[in-house]
Amino acid sequence: MCRKKLMLTIGLMSIMLTNLNASDDKILPYPIYQHKLDNGLNVVTVPFDSPGLAAFYIVVRVGSRNEVEDGVTGFAHFFEHMMFRGTDKYPREEYNKVLKMTGAGANANTSLDRTIYHMTGNVDYLEKMFELESDRFMNLKYPEHDFKVEAGAVKGEYTKNFANPYQRLYESLLNTAFDVHTYKHTTMGFFEDIVDMPNQYEYSIEFFNRYYRPEYSTIVVVGDVNKEKVNSLAEKYFGNWETGNYSAEIPVEPPQKEKRSVHLQDGSIPPYMSMNYKGPAFSDTKIDMPAIDVMNTILFSQNSKLYKKLVVEEQKLRFLGGGAMDSRDPYLINIQASFINKDDFQYVRDEITKAINEIKHNGVDPKVLEETKSNLKYSYAMGIDNPDAIANSVSHYIYLTGDPESLNRLYTMYDKVTDEAIKMIADKYYIESGLTIATISADEKGGVE
Amino acid sequence: MKTLIISILLTGIIMAQEIVELKQPNSAKLVVKFMFKNGSISDPQGKEGLTYTTSQLITQGGTGELTFGDIQDKIYPMAASYYSSVDKEVAIFTFQFHKDWMDEFYPIMIGLITNPSLSQSDFDRVKVNQQAYVDQVIRASSDEEYSKKALEDFLFRGTNYQHMIEGKSASVSGITLDDVKAHYKKYFTRNNLMVGIAGNYSEDFLNKLKSDLNKLPDTIPTVPIPPVVKSPNGIEVEIIAKEGAFGSAIFTGYPLSITRADDDFAALMVANSYLGEHRKSYGKLYQMIREQRSMNYGDYSYIEWYNNGGGNMLPPSGVPRHSNYFALWIRPVQIAKQLKAQYEELSDINIGHAHFALRMALREMDKMIKNGISQEDFEATRAFLQSYIKLYIKSPDEQLGYLMDSKMYGRENYIQELGELLSKVTLDDVNSAIKKYMQIENMKITIVTDVSEAEPLAKSLKENLTSPMSYSNIVKAGLSEEILNEDAATENFKLNVKNVTIVDSKDTFK
User: Best interface-test mutation with B: which of A9, A367, A382 has the largest number of B CBs within 10 A?
Assistant: First the structure.
């Protein structure tokens, strides 16, 4: 990146962060350049002052949400593993060798709605990164035996996760809270499907042909780069990638009619309860999700009345927290509490409900509302101090809406959250019929009303 | 003139303190770190975990003027953050805040460090969490983290490095608020403090900080010396039998005489990276155990403590140690009970993959020790590391952390110096370092596994029984002859096992 331009960007950053409370500034103090290739692939460049370093991400909008067929839950995640298994040009060993040469930190991860492949390293190797990635995204080819073998590594991942009771409860929670939507299973998938993975070779090829397409993908480059260079590399290496035509029909979850509960009997860890209300899908134009974020911050931050009462003063809880995960389809607003004594389950559940009802009836303190907006903005501004953090953040909004500018729009929406909006979403989402309560204790049953 | 004299006097007084500066004029954020050179090795006997309690109480409590709740109210709109982290030899407090709030946040930061309230109510809250961690969380939430902590307990037994940072069940329950107050006075002093500051701060700000730190106790702490650990006698194994474990989680290690302070470390780092770079697919162990045989999620080697390996991709700063050890991490492998349930063809096995995986890892290491690494592998691994180490310091927080750690090892700037050392290192240096520092004859091993697996695995290890790899038919059918031959050579590879004991999970970290 040209030094002069870099200084200009930084100057701009300081000004913008200093005026964080002004509503017309964008939360990301760097420009987001977008360039769409003819085949539909979006290319996003964010220049950032990290001399010699760049983060190179590819966001594929496919996750466990797309696992609509029976018997293949966990497949988006399994497939992420297969993407490291090679091509004709770069068989696995060769891929590893070249990747090692770049000295990059490279990996991938899968979640409900997306799979992200990332490399962060020496910007001198940016073209090599493009070449490696375009080759496997366009020409992936792995032997059937490799496919069968890799399934064992996924089982190993499940085995390591299984040790954690919270993870086991989460698996049951999703299975209880959702009836038909693919959010019913975790991204790891059902264990019986994981054991069966070696038999799904043909499906894996189908999966690749469906989703590893330009219209599902966005390239994000953040760091010591300029958009001209990034766009020209994208044209050179991804210009010939063929557009696909597949679109999954994701089942729509019907409204939940009554309260549900799920319990894990396990006395090996402190008692635990989570309350999960059905929430909305992410949107940067509707006020619902921004208002939920504000309400959760008000209710569950360390300075909240509830936290001070239950954790600090009464010391009934070891921990209290709450938030709604951003997702493409309606998911869960999650409130978590870790207990000192399981006999307090009902008391704490009632206190949380009381605090929610208080907001439904009386709204929130205007001063707290303003402070919360400040909190959300400064939290964000504090976190974006390296290329990976920025690339991660931009990728988050890309998988949700396809457009990285969603990030800036969301933070503008936070400014528009009013007392009325909070009362509205409290009445709409924090309702008993949309609630699933999950508990862990040594008892046979959770016993929470 | 008067101001000037006072200023000179103040500067003179605090010359003893080490200040690490990282000026970043364009940054909108400030990072301040207070590193007290006293970690869990300073815990008195019977009060193990006290340094951790004290540090937690400082960040989870109030100041002389403000309660914990008051502070939370004040910092809420700022989104300022702070936390403490304790390791064997250091206790570090990290504060991060936006420069817009510098004046408002400063008194809170300095108040917490120099005048913490140390109240009974905050203490009770902190202790409950600490007790839950040592009694339950460490055993129940991650078998791989459990086996790692258990290995440290085993490897450093009888020394001040043995106990977990968070302490032991009995010791934590005995810690009182008076213990904390005394410990704070004795060990959190201005005489064993290193301060780090990064961001766009003024000289006035720094001078005020230096001056205010004089409010810290002026005692001169006697910090215990890190242990020199004896080499194990042969291979000693501790199997931790846990009800309902889904796999076998393995950690092995032996004391290592060098640290980052030694120039040889760069050569050893190349060897280590070749064998098992943390969470990378390039390492030999990963390729042999995970990639070719799909036995688990990953297999890596280490020449220094790697904090929270399951969560971190890159090694975090803030854990400088002088008593070092080599370690292998074999992530959970399948146990017989699970394999039998999953595959009909494996219905007659009585142990899972643990013994075979262990043999494969140690045999691979043995090959490296005997044969060295090739010129080609040397060049590739060194080139990788030369770029990769720069990722350790992507953010201001990490840069500052590594600079402060450098001082603990007697270096100025470890990452920069390591880059220079790596550029000079030769293949001969690497292969000599392997011969000098690596061995598989004397080590300690911990395995967290299911109760059903403990006895048969113990017998198999103790008697060096043949441990054939138990593949499912579907995987076995496509394996190359090369892999099958390698397996045959591995299943009888003799390990120098001298002792195997089984410990009930309930009896660990007592």
Answer: A382
pLDDT tens per residue across span B197-224: 999 999 999 999 999 999 999 999 999 9
Q: Which of B98, B136, B472 sits opposite A382 (nearest CB)?
A: B98
Give the model's pLDDT for residue B17.
Answer: 73
Chain B residues whose beta carbon lies within 8 Å of the beta carbon of residue A340:
128, 132
Would the CB atoms of B332 and A160 count as touching at under 8 Å? yes
Which residue does chain B place closest to A162, by CA atoms? B246
Which residue among B293, B394, B478 places its CB closest to the CB of A387?
B394
The rounded percent of chain A whose pLDDT value lies above 90 is 94
pLDDT in tens, B120-135: 999 999 999 999 999 9
Interface test with A, best of B287, B334, B379, B390 (most A CBs within 10 A): B390
Residue A344: its chain B contacts at CB < 8 A? Answer: none
**Which member of A157, A266, A387 has the closest CB to residue B297?**
A157
Q: Using 70 as the pLDDT threshold, list the residues of chain B that sit under it.
A: 1-16
Q: Are B480 and A149 in contact (CB under 8 A)?
A: no
Predicted pLDDT at A20: 52
Please report residues of B whose CB lies closer than 8 A to that of A157. 297
The amino acid that residue A446 corresponds to is G
| Mean pLDDT, rounded, for A8-22 | 36
Query: Measuring CA to CA, how many Å separate A432 from each of A50, A424, A449?
Result: 49, 16, 10
**Letter string b/e over residues B274-306, b meaning 16 or more CB atoms within 10 A of that residue's CB:** bbbbbbbbbbbbbbbbbbbbbbbbbbbbbbbbb
Residue with tokens 């799920």: A262
| Residues A104, A121 contacting (CB under 8 angstroms) | yes
Both structure tokens of B133: 């961690």
**Three-class HEC string of chain A:** CCHHHHHHHHHHHHHHHHCCCCCCCCCCCCCCEEEECCCCCEEEEEECCCCCEEEEEEEECCCHHHCCCCCCCCHHHHHHHHCCCEECCCEHHHHHHHHHHHCCEEEEEECCCCEEEEEEEEHHHHHHHHHHHHHHHHHECCCHHHHHHHHHHHHHHHHHHHCCHHHHHHHHHHHHHCCCCHHHCCCCCCHHHHHHHHHCHHHHHHHHHHHCCHHHEEEEEEECCCHHHHHHHHHHHHCCCCCCCCCCCCCCCCCCCCCEEEEEECCCCCCEEEEEEECCCCCCCCCHHHHHHHHHHHHHCCCCHHHHHHHHHCCCEEEEEEEECCCCCCCEEEEEEEECCHHHHHHHHHHHHHHHHHHHHHCCCHHHHHHHHHHHHHHHHHHCCCHHHHHHHHHHHHHHHCCCCHHHHHHHHHHHCCHHHHHHHHHHHCCHHHEEEEEEECCCCCCCC
Calpha distance B356→A314 (Å, rounded): 51
A220 CB contacts (<8 Å, ≥6 apart)? Answer: A44, A45, A46, A55, A56, A57, A58, A59, A391, A394, A395, A398, A404
The secondary element (H helix, E strand) that includes residue B341 is: helix B336-342
pLDDT the model gives residue A24:
52
Determine the distance in angstroms separating the CA of B479 from the nearest CA of chain A, rounded to an integer: 8
| Dihedral angle of Cα A348, A354, A360, A363, to the nearest 10 degrees | -90
Contacts of A3 in chain B (CB under 8 A): none
Per the structure block, which two tokens stand in for A443? 């008892």
Task: Provide the pLDDT for residue B510.
Answer: 84
Residue B348 to residue B351: CA distance in whole angstroms = 10
Go through A338-356 and write b for each residue having 16 or more CB atoms within 10 A of its CB, e for each that does not.
bbbebebbeebbebbeebb
Which residue in B has a C-alpha nearest to residue A161's C-alpha? B142
